[in-house]
Amino acid sequence: MKKAELRKTYRAKRQQLSEKDVDALSISVANQLLKLPVWNASCYHIFLTIEEQNEVNTDYILNILSGKDKNIVISKSDFETYEMTHFLLTDNTRIKKNAYNIPEPIDGFEISNDKIDVVFIPLLAFDLKGNRVGYGKGFYDRFLSKCRPDTIKIGLSFFEAETEITDVFESDIQLNYCVTPNKTYKF
């Protein structure tokens, strides 16, 4: 299936989920994540949930990372360059939603891509080869292309894999894992 069709299908699927569904599925995703062999790293990049898009609620993962005393990195998006700047999340970090309802740090201590060990990635759909479909602006592909080759890329999804995304680009960065409420896919 093509990306545009998958975006439309999975946006609709997400919008059908109730707040209670999103919460329960997000807890299941976090529990599945705990089974992965990725918890010995130091620096973890995570997205802050866009509630209006019914994304996986990353608060549960943030709690796990905090409990394990990990360095947590969040991003600020530049919609002119389609690049992200990354900041260390601390107790003093002030968060504000941007024009697209994305919660972002206002300022803080900037972290370079080469310091990031693990990235939790939002997505709408993914396939059995580890290809993903995001919102279509390429923010994550640009970001991931600048990370170290050994940076672990983990997609988070409420839904299971599609067989194949047919219009994958050479610039698309594949996942190492994708975690759903019921299963973990390894690529």
From TrEMBL:
<dbReference type="Pfam" id="PF01812">
    <property type="entry name" value="5-FTHF_cyc-lig"/>
</dbReference>
<keyword id="KW-0547">Nucleotide-binding</keyword>
<dbReference type="GO" id="GO:0035999">
    <property type="term" value="P:tetrahydrofolate interconversion"/>
</dbReference>
<feature type="binding site">
    <location>
        <position position="50"/>
    </location>
    <ligand>
        <name>substrate</name>
    </ligand>
</feature>
<feature type="binding site">
    <location>
        <begin position="132"/>
        <end position="140"/>
    </location>
    <ligand>
        <name>ATP</name>
    </ligand>
</feature>
<protein>
    <recommendedName>
        <fullName>5-formyltetrahydrofolate cyclo-ligase</fullName>
        <ecNumber>6.3.3.2</ecNumber>
    </recommendedName>
</protein>
<dbReference type="GO" id="GO:0046872">
    <property type="term" value="F:metal ion binding"/>
</dbReference>
<dbReference type="GO" id="GO:0009396">
    <property type="term" value="P:folic acid-containing compound biosynthetic process"/>
</dbReference>
<keyword id="KW-0460">Magnesium</keyword>
<comment type="similarity">
    <text>Belongs to the 5-formyltetrahydrofolate cyclo-ligase family.</text>
</comment>
<dbReference type="InterPro" id="IPR024185">
    <property type="entry name" value="FTHF_cligase-like_sf"/>
</dbReference>
<keyword id="KW-0436">Ligase</keyword>
<keyword id="KW-0067">ATP-binding</keyword>
<keyword id="KW-0479">Metal-binding</keyword>
<feature type="binding site">
    <location>
        <begin position="3"/>
        <end position="7"/>
    </location>
    <ligand>
        <name>ATP</name>
    </ligand>
</feature>
<dbReference type="InterPro" id="IPR002698">
    <property type="entry name" value="FTHF_cligase"/>
</dbReference>
<dbReference type="InterPro" id="IPR037171">
    <property type="entry name" value="NagB/RpiA_transferase-like"/>
</dbReference>
<dbReference type="GO" id="GO:0005524">
    <property type="term" value="F:ATP binding"/>
</dbReference>
<dbReference type="GO" id="GO:0030272">
    <property type="term" value="F:5-formyltetrahydrofolate cyclo-ligase activity"/>
</dbReference>
<feature type="binding site">
    <location>
        <position position="55"/>
    </location>
    <ligand>
        <name>substrate</name>
    </ligand>
</feature>
